[in-house]
Amino acid sequence: MALAMGAWRRLGSLQHVATPVILLLLGSACAQDYEPTWDSLDSRPLPAWFDEAKFGIFIHWGLFSVPSFGSEWFWWYWQKQHMSCYVRFMKANYRPGFTYEDFGPLFTAEFFDANQWADIFEASGAKYMVLTSKHHEGFTLWNSKYSWNWNSVDVGPKRDIVAELAKAIRSKTSLRFGLYHSLFEWFNPLFLSDESNLFKTRMFSFTKSLPELYELVTKYQPEIVWSDGDGDAPDVYWNSTGFLAWLYNESPVRDTVVTNDRWGQDCICKHGGYYTCADRYNPGHLLNHKWENCMTIDKKSWGYRRNAKIEDYLTIEELIEQLVETVSCGGNLLLNIGPTREGLIIPLFEERLRQIGSWLDVNGEAIYSTVPWKAQNDTATPGVWYTSKPDDNIVYAIFLKWPPAGCISLDQPYAYVGKTKVHLLGYRASLKWIALGKQGMMVSLPQLNGAQLPCQWAWVLKLSRVF
User: Fold this and answer.
1) What pTM does this model have?
2) What pLDDT is attached to residue 438?
3) Is the Cβ–Cβ distance between 223 and 258 less than 8 Å?
4) pLDDT value at position 24?
5) In angstroms, rounded to a whole number, what is the distance separating the alpha carbons of residues 441 and 421?
6) Secretion signal: which residues (predicted)?
7) How far is residue 322's CA from residue 295's CA, in Å, rounded to a whole number?
8) CA of residue 222 relative to chain centroid, distance
């Protein structure tokens, strides 16, 4: 009770704090399982489903999708940094005095079909998805009580985007539903006031950001809470440990929810559920903590860009390579797309997602529910990455280029004549192989061009009983 009264006294110094937030924060202070400290919260085991999933879809959608120029940071680059290309774009295409708020009614979403999105995500082979419920601009894609007249129900589409997509994902797919939420907002006066006070005051965090988080979890029950945008404020300002203690102990998703590591300045790659460390993070080696590679099909932006060129998009070969390397090193791949202001997933994004799905239809057993092997890649043959299922004594060697010689050398496996068996996923017959000294093997591949096999872009050898 001393903790609860202490929390009350601290909150009492803030005027106009929303009562539900006070009650929830007090509940966090009285939590039975996880205390609101990083030592306690970081001890929570990550729910197993997340590591087994391996692949998810990220969706960046908001008012930045209206100008769809340059980046989802359009407002910041235009109004804060006054970057010349953004200033010129606005002068050339919009009336004098046009404000960022004026984009609200133009965010129409008339072609947004949550069921169609769900079908595409299911076809991609992804096991979870994360929607930007609110980016740094502050515009929410649900009817938030804490974002009056700056949300998708009051302005623009006049629809609860979060609710529609949650319903479609849960009714039509097997994907887990997740939500991204930006802690800070670039131009919110309350945040700017707290920032000017060196975050000694917490009006924005306690009356805007935290209430939104509690609202999202209680109303939509996401199984991923993807936090971002700390605004250079410490986790104490955001009361991150208090929120996470409630999330893990008392929330409706307490047993299955996973969180990332973006909960305040200096938290990234140190605290939270799994690590993201940086955008497009791919260390290329095994980490001792579960991590995620969040990246984009568009090399330059998370939001949709009308001015993107074809060379700005990653090819399917590059995307499969990212997936394979990430999983081999113990990570998950969260692959981002940016819908248009009308709510369309452009054909190129859809094609890439469906291509990944077709590859996973053949080779998914080398991705889903695997764990890193003793070696992540092969030194004899570049472009070979390993995953494993140790309970079944199976190792998968995933190679990104079809060798013109018709055989492939692997120097990592210990193979045994009469025991080790080799198959190429998507090809029925077993393959012949020979040992290369005490360690290593050479596998003879089918006398076909790789493109003639059931799936292209990368191929998987299934090695049974190797060490």
Assistant:
1) 0.91
2) 82
3) yes
4) 43
5) 12
6) 1-31
7) 9
8) 13
What is the side-by-side strand order in the sheet with 331-337? 258-259, 224-228, 176-182, 128-134, 55-59, 331-337, 291-296
Question: Tokens 């050339």 label which residue?
Answer: 92
In angstroms, the CA 254 to CA 460 distance is 37
The sheet with strand 384-389 has its strands ordered as 384-389, 394-399, 459-464, 421-424
| Helix, strand, or coil (residue 368) | coil
Looking up tokens 């360690």 gives 439
How far is residue 172 CA from its own chain's centroid? 21
User: Following DSSP, what letter does each residue of 274-314 receive, concatenated?
Assistant: SB--STT---SS--SS-EEEEEESBSS-SS--TT--GGGBP
pLDDT tens, 285-332?
A: 999 999 999 999 999 999 999 999 999 999 999 999 999 999 999 999
Q: Structural domains in the chain?
A: 2-366 (3.20.20.80), 384-464 (2.60.40.1180)
Q: How many residues does the chain have?
A: 467
Secondary structure (DSSP) of 47-111: PHHHHHH-EEEEE--SGGGTT--S-TTHHIIIIIS--HHHHHHHHHHS-TT--GGGGGGG---TT
The DSSP letter of residue 209 is: I
Mean pLDDT of the chain: 92
3-state secondary structure of 230: coil
Give the chain's count of helices (H) and strands (E). Answer: 15, 14
Q: How does pLDDT run across 182-223, given as a tens digit for each residue? A: 999 999 999 999 999 999 999 999 999 999 999 999 999 999
Q: Which two tokens stand for residue 256?
A: 């299955």
DSSP-derived secondary structure letter, 326: H
Q: What is the pLDDT of residues 130-189, one digit of tens each?
A: 999 999 999 999 999 999 999 999 999 999 999 999 999 999 999 999 999 999 999 999
